[in-house]
């Protein structure tokens, strides 16, 4: 197979450097590459987000409008991660949920991009 997986997902932002720094400060990612106002932030597990300069006005989005709707951030200690987000002033959009043993909680980055923490008892196949 010539396709090996997703290398990164991009988020368009009116303030790419500020948003990249939020991912560093709040989620412990690191800026691993930048060019021409684009910032790649890399999670400890190697997953990357490219934050690019946006153009135009944002479109309204809800949980199930077409397109990419959320980024799921895996955690090794769910309760500790939830408490960490709260201590850093991140507003949670829901109470923590337990769905078939999976624990999750929704929140947004400062630009309204939807994320959630996920802790699974077993990885997906």
CATH class of the largest domain: Alpha Beta
Q: Any idea of the CATH topology of the largest domain?
A: 2,3-Dihydroxybiphenyl 1,2-Dioxygenase, domain 1
Please state the structural category: alpha/beta
Order of helices and strands: EHEEEEHEEE
**Tally of helical segments:** 2
What is the count of β-strands? 8
Write structural notes for this entry.
This protein folds into 2 domains: 7-54, Signal recognition particle alu RNA binding heterodimer, srp9/1; 69-125, 2,3-Dihydroxybiphenyl 1,2-Dioxygenase, domain 1 (Roll). The protein is built from 2 helices and 8 strands, in the order βαββββαβββ. It has helices at 16-27, 78-87, and strands at 8-13, 30-35, 38-42, 48-53, 71-74, 97-99, 102-108, 114-119. The strands form 2 sheets. The chain has a 4-stranded mixed β-sheet with strand order 1-4-3-2, with helices on one face. The longest helix has 12 residues, at 16-27.
């Amino acid at each position: 197979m010539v396709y090996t997986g997703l290398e990164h997902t991009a988020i368009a932002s009116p303030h790419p450097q500020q948003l990249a720094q939020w991912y560093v400060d709040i989620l412990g990612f690191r800026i691993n590459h930048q060019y021409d106002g684009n910032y790649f932030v890399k999670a400890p597990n190697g997953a990357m987000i490219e934050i690019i300069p946006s153009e135009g006005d944002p479109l309204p989005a809800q949980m199930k409008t077409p397109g990419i709707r959320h980024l799921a951030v895996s955690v090794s200690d769910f309760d500790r991660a939830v408490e960490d987000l709260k201590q850093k002033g991140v507003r949670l959009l829901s109470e923590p949920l337990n769905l078939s043993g999976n624990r999750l909680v929704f929140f947004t980055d400062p630009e309204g991009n939807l994320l959630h923490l996920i802790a699974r008892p077993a990885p997906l196949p």
